[in-house]
Design brief:
The complex is a heterodimer of chains A (393) and B (245). Chain A is α/β, with parallel strands linked by helices. Chain A has two domains: 253 residues, 3-Layer(aba) Sandwich (UDP-N-acetylmuramoyl-L-alanine:D-glutamate ligase); 123 residues, Mur ligase, C-terminal domain (Protein-Tyrosine Phosphatase, Chain A), CATH 3.90.190. Chain A is globular. Chain B has a single domain, classed as Class I glutamine amidotransferase (GATase) domain (Rossmann fold, 3-Layer(aba) Sandwich). In chain B, a hairpin with a 2-residue loop joins β11 and β12. Chain B starts with a strand and ends with a helix. The chains are: A alpha/beta (393), B alpha/beta (245). The interface between A and B is large, with 37 and 41 residues.
Chain lengths: 393, 245
């Protein structure tokens, strides 16, 4: 609705933004990268419009923007940084042309929806093609390197970010290497404007056009360092010589620290960490943070039409499951069986499963941990009395 | 010792088909048999001995990555098949092991020729849960592929769908379609789930053939096998229920 009415309104609203509209897209990390880019630009004194985390579909973006437009029809910000869903970016681009596009990675994701990673490349290309100012891609992702090569004759300047080969080698196989480690194109990193040179817990050293800068990440993890490099590379493209290493540092430092990977919900005064089972790479990153949690709840339903890929996930960080639920519970139970991970209760219906899990005493260390798909998370939030997306109730 | 050769697990691995190898391995180990899994990568030498070969599914881009290597090792694979080594090939991997694969542009490339089938890529994908009747009972899983696969030489299908496009891909009917192929001990199928954990009767049929080649025989299932098989049966039942069968 908003989008149908909006094309003229949106285009006019952003028309006085000196740095224009930036789309941030890709399989994993686009929310974090959008947040980082916004923080870095704000640290440079810029006014930034951005969409709420995860609200990355055209309707949500259009609604958020329309709600912010002053009476005269022009947004006052200098730049709009928008996290955009891969599949819907082209549609949004018809109403709101991106001046610049930042593509973080193309990884195995929602195969029932996307079929295969190469197809996602086509979706991204459809809107990357219209960018007039800057195109920034992950130099370690073969699909994105190919995409950029196809657009080499276009009007946008091109630059890239990368992870140093030594770090990639020791990192999770899939990280920043595109959908398939067999296709790693680390050789391209020599040309990258921003490179993750080293990583020490939650701090990383970036080289920005050769200048070394130490930055603080929201949590430990090479994927956060790659996100920071992506955001810095786009900031560099937008600001050119105005980019200040110190402002990159202060911008990234101003972000809230992330404890654990998941969202924290609260039930009966007790924190519960929720890990979403979005796709293989993001689940693996989340699982790798766990340390044999004492209490584990797993819920998977039709929001994950084919959970087969869970057989390829390394589940060694969990040593049991207390309660398993969802319409796909028996399929997950079969997987846990072959993984020799004991499952104490299999209760396909959510309400009794949740009641059983919440009735467990508070764990002696850590928090109760839930590994759930998005649809189950929304149902659980509702059951716990959460009304909206931002963790409030 | 049973040797399982898993072809190109990195390239042809995005659908969790590694679960087939996991099921075979655990079902052998739980019976007291030891298993060696050889991950065959592009450019590597094949082992001297194989008692079972698995190849998973993957997109066209992944097929391109392994094609040349597959042509290189084809003579050995054909020798193994002729000697009775069972193959399990899933979707994209099955397409490569058939007699030919025709791409969307209409260009045909020869396949390895393990399976008497030919695959033609089409733009209408089949993406849904499947239940099919086979000679060993009902199987269930998930299809997500875009190839019309035709069986040659009156080859025997794995089964016929109660729900699912099967070998006809997305443009064909959603029921009573032919699914998969059976050649001696070998199976080609479009089913994920993965196929063997979801349908253990076929896992044991493959494993029995592999064990026989290794001079072993399959003992009765133990309690661990009984438990995963109960869970698999409930998984199939849930799919059946969702499909209204």
């Amino acid at each position: 609705m908003a989008l149908a009415l909006a094309p003229g309104l949106l285009a006019r609203a952003v028309s006085r933004m000196s740095l224009g509209v930036v789309f941030v897209s890709g399989s994993n990390g686009k929310s974090t990268t959008t947040h980082m880019l916004t923080s870095i630009l704000r640290a440079h004194g810029l006014r930034v419009f951005s969409n709420p985390s995860g609200a990355n579909l055209p309707q949500g973006i259009a609604s958020a923007m329309l709600a912010s437009i002053p009476l005269d029809g022009y947004l006052r910000e200098d730049v709009a940084v928008l996290e955009v869903d891969e599949a819907f970016g082209a549609r949004l681009a018809r109403a709101l042309t991106p001046h610049s596009v930042l593509l973080v990675n193309i990884q195995v994701d929602q195969l029932n929806r996307f079929y295969e990673p190469a197809r996602v490349a086509g979706m991204l290309e459809a809107f990357a093609r219209v960018a007039t100012d800057h195109l920034v891609v992950n130099a370690d992702d073969h699909n994105l390197v190919d995409l950029a090569a196809r657009l080499a004759e276009g009007p946008a300047t091109q630059s890239a970010f990368a992870v140093a080969p030594a770090l990639l080698k020791d990192g999770p196989a899939w990280l920043a290497r595109g959908d398939n480690p067999a296709l790693a194109t680390a050789a391209a990193q020599a040309d990258a404007a921003v490179i993750v040179e080293s990583l020490d817990d939650a701090s990383a050293e970036l080289s920005i056009r050769g200048e070394r800068v130490s930055v603080q990440l929201p949590a430990r993890g090479l994927h956060y360092a790659a996100d920071a490099a992506a955001a810095t590379a786009m900031a560099l493209a937008l600001l050119g010589d105005r980019l200040a290493g110190a402002s990159v540092v202060s911008g990234l430092a101003s972000m809230d620290a992330v404890y654990g990977r998941g969202e924290i919900l609260n039930a009966n005064g007790e924190d519960i960490e929720i890990i979403t089972m979005k796709n293989p790479p993001s689940l693996q990153v989340n699982l790798d943070y766990l340390d044999a949690p004492e209490q584990v709840f797993v819920a998977v339903d039709e929001g994950t039409p084919d959970p087969s890929w869970i057989y390829g996930s390394d589940l060694s960080r969990i040593d049991h499951v207390d309660v398993l639920t969802g319409t796909k519970a028996w399929q997950l139970a079969t997987r846990f069986g072959y993984g020799e991970i004991p499952v104490h209760a299999i209760i396909p219906e959510l309400a009794p499963a949740l009641a059983r899990f919440l009735a467990l005493p508070k764990p002696s260390r850590g928090t109760k941990t839930m590994i759930v798909n998005y649809e189950q998370m929304m149902l659980i939030r509702k059951a716990l009395g959460y009304l909206e997306l931002e963790g409030k109730r | 010792m049973i040797t399982i050769v898993h072809l190109y697990p990195r390239e042809l691995g995005i659908n969790g088909d590694v679960g087939n190898v996991m099921a075979l391995t655990k079902r052998a180990e739980w019976r007291g048999m030891s298993v060696r899994v050889v991950h065959h990568e592009v450019g590597a030498a094949l082992p001297d001995v194989a008692h079972l070969v698995h190849i998973g599914s993957g997109p066209v881009s992944a097929q391109h990555l392994v094609r040349e290597d597959l042509a290189r090792i084809a003579p050995t694979l054909l020798d193994w098949a002729a000697a009775g080594v069972p193959f399990l090939a899933i979707a994209g991997g099955w397409q490569l092991l058939g007699r030919s694969l025709v791409d969307l542009a209409g260009d045909a490339q020869p396949g390895v020729g393990i399976f008497p089938s030919t695959a033609t890529l089409v733009s209408t994908r089949a993406v849904n849960e499947v239940v099919a009747q086979t000679s060993l009972g009902e199987v269930a899983g998930f299809e997500n592929h875009g190839a019309v696969t035709t069986l040659l030489d009156d080859a025997e299908p794995l089964g016929r769908t109660l729900r699912g496009h099967g070998n006809a891909a997305g443009a064909g009917p959603l029921s009573s379609a032919i699914e998969g192929v059976l050649v001696g001990p070998s199976i080609g199928t479009n089913l994920h789930g993965p196929f063997l954990p979801m349908n253990p009767v076929w896992a044991d049929r493959l494993l029995a053939a592999a064990a026989a080649l290794a001079g072993l025989s399959l003992t009765e299932p133990d309690a661990r096998i009984a438990e995963v098989d109960k869970r698999a049966a409930n998984s199939r039942g849930a799919i059946r229920g969702r499909l209204g069968l």
